[in-house]
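re: ur question from earlier - yeah i can do the single chain one, its not a big deal. heres the input i used so u can compare w yours
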Amino acid sequence: MTVTQPRARAAAVPPARRPRGAQAAKSRRAPRESVLAERFAVFAECLLTGVWIAVASLPLVTVPAAFAAGTRHLRRRTAHEGGGWREFTADFRAAVRGGWLVGTAGWAGAAAVWVDVQAVRAGIPGGPLVGAVGLFALIGGAVAGLRAAAVWEPGAAWRELLADAGRRTVLDPAGSFLLIGGLVVVACSALLVAPLAVPVLGAVAAAAVAVEERRRRR
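and the output i got, formated as tokens:
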């Protein structure tokens, strides 16, 4: 009896318990977001960003600055950084300081292309060639503007951004055609249902971010 009692007492000792702090931390740990939920959240954020871009683009000459602020917001979102309407507004104010000149030049180019199209319709000799060149130049300028906006950072010079974006537009034709497709979708959406083009602007901004990220990783 004297030999078995200590063994019985040792067997009755409960095993070591996990510290309460570890249990509390485990219970407070948030469940991991599924891939589908995360992608849907990014898609919804793109649509919301499109609305922000449309509102900021109402003065027309602020279109480049609006896309710059929108793409930077999406970059923060995909990097799981904080940011919202206030950060978008601050980025827009910083981008519009030099971006309005880019917007003015862009609309001037669009007006010149419109004149070329009218010349083609009037049957002026050489009009089709001039109109085609002007149209391709306008599309290339729009793609370069999107690519420049996708890499904009506060304090960056728009002239340097556009020069680098122009080279990337030529050297990366696959990415450029993807952005052209996005612009076509916006145009078709505006022709079919005009309000539908507003959220689609966010998808175009997201495509610009994806194109630049793809080229950076190559």
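Residues 1-16, 21-31 have pLDDT under 50 and may be disordered. not sure if urs matches, ping me
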